[in-house]
């Protein structure tokens, strides 16, 4: 297995067309490309021209946010673990995680007025529009994937039981080549990433090669998480990825994790199970998994994964 970054480009699939409606020729063509990209790379770039209208504002807003004094950023707390403000890890990486970010109020009142008590309308508007674009795109992609597996009848139920978690990340300039985060699978169903011009993300293809991702300014990077892998009874691999940021420029990234909502039982559909292929996973509740995850982590087991948690 090579650990070198390869100059390969991820497939780019265009989602900009307004008439992208299920059943239309444009839809079927994009769906076909999604299938091929996932088979080959387990990942792709989804281009959405509308995001260019907010690009400058998004990274301006992130800069404004992370430039706030530490004491101000620390005011944004959450009663759920790993949500809220997380200070710089080894001085290089800090992030803020917002739960149920598709509800505008959680950004407008939950985040913005905590950080700017007198309000900051342009910050809220920018983050809300970016989240709207990303969650809309995620729904389209998820529906296509369900169609590919012939289980689209579950699309509404699955999408309605989604918690969209927004994570905004700053990677400080440094010359280190240590991966952070280290190689991992996301636990989400699908993750969408939108970054500034500073690269660093690498994804591993099915041959074990690390591909250095160099996305276009109008592209979201689409990753498959472990929840979707489990729900499809192992039918789709999740994307193994890491970040190695080189150079002194600051990298900003917006990550939208589409995760199952707590209280919803994620269960492999009966259509994906037959006499030959039994269910590989037991039904699970995403938030209960995290409770076990943190218990394991407290005992020193940091690599506990969702597939281990719910495998039959
Ligand atoms: O910054 C990135 O591009 C990816 C971050 C990531 O993988 C994560 O937060 O799970
Ligand atoms: Fe990740």
TrEMBL record:
Keywords linked to the UniProt accession: Iron, Metal-binding, Oxidoreductase
Record-stated family: Belongs to the iron/ascorbate-dependent oxidoreductase family.
Taxon lineage: Eukaryota, Viridiplantae, Streptophyta, Embryophyta, Tracheophyta
SUPFAM superfamilies the UniProt entry points to: Clavaminate synthase-like (SSF51197)
Record organism: Hibiscus sabdariffa (roselle)
Name of a matching Pfam family: DIOX_N
Keyword Repeat tagged: no
Entry keyword annotation includes Cell membrane: no
Domain Fe2OG dioxygenase: residue ranges: 161-260
Name the record gives this protein: Fe2OG dioxygenase domain-containing protein
């Amino acid at each position: 297995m090579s650990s070198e970054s390869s100059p390969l480009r991820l497939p780019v699939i265009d989602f900009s067309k307004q008439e992208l409606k299920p059943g239309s020729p444009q839809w079927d063509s994009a769906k076909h490309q999604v299938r091929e990209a996932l088979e080959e790379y387990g990942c792709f770039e989804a281009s959405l021209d509308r995001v260019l209208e907010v690009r400058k504002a998004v990274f301006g807003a992130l800069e404004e946010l992370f430039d706030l004094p530490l004491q101000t950023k620390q005011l944004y707390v959450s009663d759920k673990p790993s949500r809220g403000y997380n200070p710089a890890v080894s001085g290089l990486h800090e992030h803020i995680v917002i739960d149920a970010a598709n509800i505008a109020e959680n950004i407008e009142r939950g985040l913005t007025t905590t950080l700017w008590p007198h309000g900051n309308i342009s910050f809220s508007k920018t983050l809300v529009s970016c989240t709207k674009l990303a969650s809309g795109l995620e729904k389209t992609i998820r529906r296509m994937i369900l169609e590919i597996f012939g289980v689209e009848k579950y699309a509404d139920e699955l999408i309605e039981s989604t918690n969209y978690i927004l994570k905004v990340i700053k990677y400080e300039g440094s010359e280190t080549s240590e991966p952070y985060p280290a190689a991992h699978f996301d636990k989400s169903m699908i993750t969408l990433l939108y970054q500034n011009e500073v690269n660093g993300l690498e994804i591993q293809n099915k041959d074990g090669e690390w591909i250095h991702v160099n996305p276009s300014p109008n592209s979201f990077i689409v990753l498959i998480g472990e929840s979707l892998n489990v729900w499809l009874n192992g039918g789709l691999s999740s994307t193994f990825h890491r970040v190695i940021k080189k150079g002194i420029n600051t990298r900003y990234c917006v990550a939208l994790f589409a995760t199952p909502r707590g209280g919803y039982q994620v269960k492999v559909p009966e259509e994906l199970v037959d006499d030959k292929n039994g269910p590989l996973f037991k039904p699970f509740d995403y938030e209960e998994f995290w409770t076990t995850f943190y218990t394991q982590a407290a005992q020193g087991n940091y690599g506990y994964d969702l597939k281990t948690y719910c495998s039959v």
